[in-house]
Amino acid sequence: MSDDNSEGSDRNVDLGSTRGFGSNLEESNLSGSGSDSDSDPDDEPNQGLFDDLLSGEPIFENKEVLRPSYTPHELPHRSDQINKMATILVAALRGETPSNILIYGKTGTGKTASAKFVSKELESTSKKYSVPCEVEYINCEVTDTQYRVLAQLANKFIEENERVIETQIDSLEALLDDLDEYDDTITSDESDPDSETTASDVPGDDSFVDDGVAETTEPNFDANSSTDLESGESEPVNRVDLSTGDTVDLTSSELDSPVETGGSDTVVDDDRSSAGSETEGDTDRSHDDDYEHPLADTPFSSAADVEDRIASLEADRESFEEVPMTGWPTDRVYSVFFDAVDYSERVVVIMLDEIDKLVEKSGDDTLYNLSRMNSELQNSRVSIIGISNDLKFTDFLDPRVKSSLGEEEIVFPPYDANQLRDILQHRSEVAFKGDALSPDVIPLCAAFAAQEHGDARRALDLLRTAGELAERAQAETIVEEHVRQAQDKIELDRVVEVVRTLPTQSKLVLFAIILLEKNGVHSINTGEVFNIYKRLCEEIDADVLTQRRVTDLISELDMLGIVNAVVVSKGRYGRTKEISLSVPIEETEAVLLSDSRLSDIDDVQPFVQARFDN
């Protein structure tokens, strides 16, 4: 029993020795702490794994500048398109509905970056001029159904409405606090004897008016003779003239006589009386200036009105219901979205990136509803910006949607090599340290990207990857060799991503081609692929498509650049496709086998029919 306890205590001591990251570093730096026999090299917390990597000087100053998600403060060679967007959207700052905009262009031509840049400027300017204007961005490649688009928009506007209501309630509660403070101040002023002299300060007559003279004794007691003034006898009372500071003797009978300012029976002279009245007037005016009523410049007439407004806002907040990502009828989602948008007066710009993906997946119902909203909205106005890589996607739209959506069209042409060089130069000044780039790096990156339809995104990825490879090699400068290595790496990464996202049937066709290549078959024809494909489908219990459909899948793989399929004529035997792989076999096979359904066919060696090649 004692052995177990001692063992447990030893375990506790060991755990306590690792009480924190900082303490471990501190203890490891202490000379002579612990013995060599007690330390196990495998258990040491710091093996120098990252020390060597951190020892070199970093090449990057700000790597995020080279990522596609970054929106720069300046977009070279896109000023014409940006200015055109601005001239259309400026109507929102006047409280009007801007025209809908469709933006076309190939991948990497600056469409999204330019639209986001203009949107950011629009929102900042609307705040400057206190004009309610909002821009909501949705990537339709991710949010690709009508339900998801409407639900995401509805929840964004519900969140914005709740934030506005919270701000308004805080302001109204502060107004109630000011109102309570104002009432307390007025009440305290009326009860303060020093704030204003009243008739109750003088005994025997409630109609006494301040005559500019202050009494120096208790009201009912003569300090000189200790005679009780309540007996009615006329005794002297000492007072101080406020205007001169002299002591004045007044009898109680004089005090009992009414004083009328400006009349013949006035005890004090006209100058002092007028001075007193001027002082009183000045006091009233300063009182009005210091204690302006909190509701003076508001639409509320009483505290009850403010409380009613708070209750109404809280009821509105309680009525909001967040839309779940699934489960509601679409018309209910649309109704919630409509009410959320129309809750307050504002102009809303909805930016739909990759809008062609939404139309391809869900049809044009979403665009029809959004483009027709303004005819029903009471408080707000909605405008749409659609961004697409497909110049022909509008051919599939309903004519009514096409006419209302494509009111303005802006085309973004591809960049040429010189323009790409300017873009890379502009970004590299912020992304890298001073002399991290050799002179031939940016021109080479621009040349590689210009070969692929002027894709600025590809050029930025190439430059960033070249910098990462140089940094991993602990090189001080990025050179041409790093750019070429980055080109190969990006190409492989692109293939991996494309293959990974293929449908299962396309993966089976590709896997059949890989197995044929690994078995030494060259110039593979469609029939051979189909035979192997059928056996693979049997292995994983998948549906077998027709040979015609398999031929279509091969054409799709050819279009993606994964295989190379060429139609050749066999004379009287007809025509066939000769197929070969365009990607590395080992890497592509590894990606296919990472699919859980295809992992079971790792060891399948299909029979390959012998043939006589001409």
UniProtKB/TrEMBL annotation:
List the biased-composition ranges (Basic and acidic residues): 282-295
Indicate, by first and last residue, each region the UniProt record lists as having compositional bias (Low complexity).
22-36
Looking at the record, the residues that make up the Cdc6 C-terminal domain are: 510-592
Query: Which positions in this protein are listed as binding ATP?
Result: T109, G110, K111, T112, A113, Y415, R427
Sequence segments annotated as region (Disordered)? 1-53, 184-305
Q: What SMART domains does the record tag this protein with? A: AAA (SM00382), Cdc6_C (SM01074)
The record's section on SUPFAM superfamilies has: P-loop containing nucleoside triphosphate hydrolases (SSF52540), Winged helix' DNA-binding domain (SSF46785)
The UniProt entry's sequence similarity note says: Belongs to the CDC6/cdc18 family.
Name it. ORC1-type DNA replication protein
